[in-house]
C-alpha cells in the first residue's frame, strides 16, 4: 500500500469513527473526545479537518477541551484553545475545564488555564468554586494567586472553602486558607463553622489549627 492509499484509508477510518460516534450518542462526536482523552493530537487535528465544530458536546455536555484538560493533555488543550475552543463552557454539572483539571490534580494544566484566563471564581451547579474542589496545596496556591475567593459562601448553603477543607481533614489546606485570609468564624445555614465540621469528622489536628 503506497503513501496515498494509506492516507485515504486513514481518512476512511476517521469518517467511520465520526459516523459511528454520532449514531451511538444521538448526534454527538465522541471520536473527538476519545482522541482528546488519549492526548492524540494528530487524531484531534484530523477529526477537526473533517468535522470542524470544536465545541461539540458529548452526553455529559463536555467539550473536547474539557476532556483534554481533565486528563492533563497540555498539547491538545493548547491546540484546541488556539482554535478558539470555549475555555469557560460548562458541562451538565456546571464544571469548567479549569474545575475538571483541579479535581484531577493536573497542576501544570491548572497553571496554564489560569494564565489563559480561566476563572477561579466560576461556580458549578452546587455553587462550589475550583478552590472548594481542590485537594492540592500547590493547586490551591495557584488559584488564590489568581484571585480565588477564600471566603466564597455557597448561596443557600453557606459552605466555604475552609469548611470543605476542614470537613475533609486537609490540615495543610486549612493552614493555607487561614494564612490567606479565610474567616474561620463564618457559619453555614445551620450555624456550623469550620471547626464544627472538623470536630464532627474527628479531624483533631485540623481542629487544633482552627482553635
Folded structure, characterized:
55% of the residues lie in helices and 0% in strands. By secondary structure, the protein is an all-alpha fold. The chain has a domain at 1-86: Serine Threonine Protein Phosphatase 5, Tetratricopeptide repeat (Alpha Horseshoe), CATH 1.25.40. It is elongated.
The major sheet is characterized as: none
The CATH superfamily of one domain is known as: Ankyrin repeat-containing domain
Q: Which radius of gyration do the C-alpha atoms yield?
A: 21 Å
| Shape label | elongated
CATH-defined fold name of one domain: Serine Threonine Protein Phosphatase 5, Tetratricopeptide repeat
Query: What's the helix-strand series?
Result: HHHHHHHHHHHHH
Question: Roughly how many Å apart are the termini?
Answer: 73 Å
- The CATH class of one domain is Mainly Alpha
Class per helix and strand makeup:
mainly alpha
Number of helical runs? Answer: 13
Beta-strand content:
under 5%
The portion of residues assigned to helices is 40-55%
Mean pLDDT: 88
Keywords:
13 helices; 211 residues; 55% helix; elongated; Serine Threonine Protein Phosphatase 5, Tetratricopeptide repeat; disordered N terminus; mainly alpha
What's this model, at a glance?
The chain has 211 residues and is an all-alpha fold. The chain has 13 helices and no strands. The chain has a domain at 1-86: Ankyrin repeat-containing domain (Serine Threonine Protein Phosphatase 5, Tetratricopeptide repeat).
Amino acid at each position: 500500500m503506497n503513501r496515498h492509499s494509506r492516507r485515504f484509508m486513514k481518512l476512511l477510518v476517521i469518517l467511520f469513527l465520526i459516523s459511528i460516534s454520532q449514531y451511538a450518542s444521538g448526534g454527538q462526536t465522541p471520536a473527538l473526545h476519545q482522541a482528546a482523552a488519549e492526548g492524540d493530537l494528530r487524531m484531534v487535528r484530523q477529526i477537526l479537518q473533517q468535522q470542524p465544530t470544536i465545541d461539540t458536546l458529548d452526553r455529559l455536555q463536555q467539550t473536547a477541551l474539557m476532556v483534554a484538560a481533565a486528563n492533563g493533555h497540555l498539547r491538545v488543550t493548547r491546540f484546541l484553545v488556539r482554535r478558539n475552543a470555549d475555555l469557560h463552557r460548562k458541562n451538565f454539572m456546571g464544571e469548567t475545564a479549569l474545575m475538571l483539571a483541579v479535581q484531577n490534580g493536573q497542576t501544570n494544566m491548572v497553571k496554564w488555564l489560569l494564565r489563559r484566563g480561566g476563572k477561579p471564581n466560576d461556580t458549578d451547579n452546587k455553587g462550589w468554586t475550583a478552590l472548594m474542589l481542590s485537594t492540592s496545596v500547590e493547586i490551591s496556591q495557584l488559584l488564590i494567586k489568581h484571585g480565588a475567593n477564600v471566603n466564597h459562601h455557597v448561596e443557600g448553603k453557606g459552605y466555604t472553602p475552609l469548611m470543605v477543607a476542614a470537613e475533609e481533614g486537609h490540615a495543610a489546606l486549612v493552614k493555607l486558607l487561614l494564612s490567606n485570609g479565610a474567616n474561620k468564624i463564618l457559619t453555614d445555614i445551620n450555624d456550623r463553622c469550620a471547626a464544627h465540621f472538623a470536630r464532627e469528622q474527628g479531624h483533631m489536628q485540623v481542629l487544633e489549627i482552627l482553635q
